[in-house]
Amino acid sequence: MPTRRTFLGTTLAAAASATQWTAAASTNENPMQPIILSTWRHGLPANEAAWPVLADGGSALDAVEAGARQSESDPDNATVGLGGRPDRDGNVTLDACIMGPDGNCGSVACLTEIENPISVARLVMEQTPHVMLVGQGALEFAIERGFPRRDLLTPNSRAEWEKWQAEHPDAVGQRQINVENHDTIGLVALDAAGDLAGACTTSGLAWKLPGRVGDSPIIGAGMYADNEVGAAAATGVGEAVIRAVGSFLVVELMRQGHGPTDACRLACERVVAKNPDWRELQVGFIALSKSGEVGGYALQPGFQYAVRSAAGEELVDAASIAN
Ligand code: ASP
Asked: Of ligand 1's atoms, which has the minimum distance to the CA of residue 181?
């Protein structure tokens, strides 16, 4: 199924003449063309927040963090950060991870009361010998580092949770394909120096069991970046992504020579193989190669990803296994 692309910028025609973009080779005289892609429509404002970093010659790592923070701080985004949908008991618990071109990475899971978990994950990476902090330990670490505490349950997310409770007194973790219950933002970027980085941040599956952690903070599942090859990120039902170690798989498929779209498609096929109920759930991958090619693929129709480069911004309807 061909990929339909929605052009949002004014100067994209030349850049988007093929289904994948390829940036110029990286040399001192001819720097890489920076590019960033992010999952879902809310990737558009996230990319816009990240783009000045890349356009000014900044690092892919700074760019993905800036983009992730935009989504996290948007109270109207009900699947990431502030205003994210809570767990079964009404607590907003956040998961995030980040990975840089040197192979270092950091992550937090089940973090409460902190608006920007991606920046906490970055400090775990940069200021501790660890990769992952969870729960109370992650919160204490964030507070020690000066992150302010705040109530992440907005009036909107509280109202939705109360409605869900009233309608589903015995239910746990309802699934709705593409809609409402999942919409993690994953971001992957290539900077002018030719370096890759990735980030992923989410409030996780709405109405989840307390303590549940999905794929998003798991390095290799929700996101993976290998500066020799490429970077990938996942969205959708985290349990299905974890079973396939999805983002690592996408990067390894690129290492074997597959282009980003093909690598994402093959990873989706692996998710199908590992999840007999795959028709009932959505999983989507995005990928970016070391040479600047981008791609994405999903289990079900409806998955979109946002691309930003010097050529402009674009929202792409990813192809899918199911029609
Ligand atoms: N992958 C996320 C999780 O399972 C959900 C999402 O994509 O929104 O926690």
From this structure: 8
**Domains recognised in the chain with CATH numbers:** 11-320 (3.60.20.30)
Q: Are 44 and 313 in contact (CB under 8 A)?
A: yes
Q: Which among 184, 202, 235, 261 is annotated as catalytic?
A: 184
203 lines ligand 1 (CB under 6 A): no
184 is catalytic: yes
Query: Could you give the dihedral angle defined by the CA atoms of residues 129, 122, 83 and 223, in that order, rounded to the nearest 10 degrees?
Result: -90
Centre of ligand 1 from the C-alpha of residue 256, in Å: 27
Pairing outcome for strands 35-39 and 132-134: unpaired
Return the C-alpha torsion angle 254, 38, 47, 220, nearest 10.
Answer: -70
Task: Find out whether the beta carbon of 42 lies less than 6 Å from any atom of ligand 1.
Answer: no
Is ligand 1 within 6 A of the CB of residue 74?
no
Q: What is the pLDDT along the chain (323 residues), one digit of tens a residue?
A: 334 444 444 333 333 333 344 444 444 455 679 999 999 999 999 999 999 999 999 999 999 999 999 999 988 888 888 888 899 999 999 999 999 999 999 999 999 999 999 999 999 999 999 999 999 999 999 999 999 999 999 999 999 999 988 887 666 555 544 444 568 999 999 999 999 999 999 999 989 999 999 999 999 999 999 999 999 999 999 999 999 999 999 999 999 999 999 999 999 999 999 999 999 999 999 999 999 999 999 999 999 999 999 999 999 999 999 99
Tokens of 220: 């290799």
